[in-house]
Amino acid sequence: MDRNIFLTADRFPLVRDIGRNRTEGLYTHPDRLLEYDVFLFVVEGSMQVIEEGIEYVVGENEHLFLKKGLHHWGKPETLLGTAWYWIHFTSPIDERIEYKHLSVVPELENYFSSHYQYVLQLPKFGAAALNHSTEDALKSMIESYRKKRTHRMTEISVQAYQLFLNLHQKAESREHANNKADAHVSRILEYLNSHAEEDFNSKQLSEHMSLNYSYISATFAKQTGQTVIEAHTRLRINKALHLMRTTSLNVSEISDQLGFQNPFYFTRVFKKILGEPPSSYMNHLYR
């Protein structure tokens, strides 16, 4: 049973309502089965919630996501004076789209509609709470919610997206910091980026990492879904896009600066990734 909730990059969650509560006595979380997701953030005390038989005790400055369609309830164990914020929202997932998981490889500096069709897993329970910045964001959302103005619900939904994205990024950074393979990927990307103006050299990368290249290649592909060479090529094209936007260099000069064998090879690589030759792409730019 999947208890996780996901964001997508191509749409934001739609907030139904939002509020803040404080218990005046011993409190029991409602027994219910909802058609929407729930976000809880406790600012004082602690709240006890059970979701499909798994118990959570959400402490101060901790959060919990409850997934739609899963039965959740509580016991009379939430103490007097417990205060929390809640958001009810509908999932942004479009079942007609086959979403992929986001890799750690930097994005190209160019628009592709398919690029936004990926999901981000939200941290289920409190370890990645952002403490006071979370409460500040929730206060701002409630203030917007109380103002009867045009587009307020859209504004709140965008704010909710930003809050949830921050929670995801915080959890992701902690997870990567404790993951040896992710640490290797970060070092590989740093190396590739610093050598994006030259042809890829597996021997030099292996020496830099003090690791066998077969291990480097397999680890990188497993963690990112791309080969090392693909990532290096994308970073080179990123450099090319930056030069196109910020300089008056022509295609041949950009090819030379990035260390390609010749402009024809550069054009072939560029077109393979972006779907059009560099000369055509440059015609779209304001220069």
Helices and strands, in order, run as: EEEEEEEEEEHHHHHHHHH
- Sheet with most strands: strand arrangement: 2-8-3-6
The percent of residues in helical segments reads 40-55%
Question: How many beta-strand elements?
Answer: 10
Number of helices: 9
Radius of gyration: 24 Å
Characterize the biggest β-sheet. 4 strands, antiparallel
| Low-confidence region ranges | none
CATH architecture of the largest domain: Sandwich
Mean pLDDT: 89
Could you say which overall geometry the principal axes of the C-alpha atoms support?
elongated
CATH topology of the largest domain, which one?
Answer: Jelly Rolls
- Give the C-level CATH assignment of the largest domain: Mainly Beta
Portion in strands: 15-25%
Instruction: Tell me the CATH superfamily of the largest domain.
Output: Regulatory protein AraC
The helix-and-strand class reads alpha+beta
Q: CA-to-CA gap between the ends? A: 53 Å
Protein name: Helix-turn-helix transcriptional regulator
GO molecular function: DNA-binding transcription factor activity; sequence-specific DNA binding
Domain HTH araC/xylS-type: 186-284
Pfam family, one: HTH_18
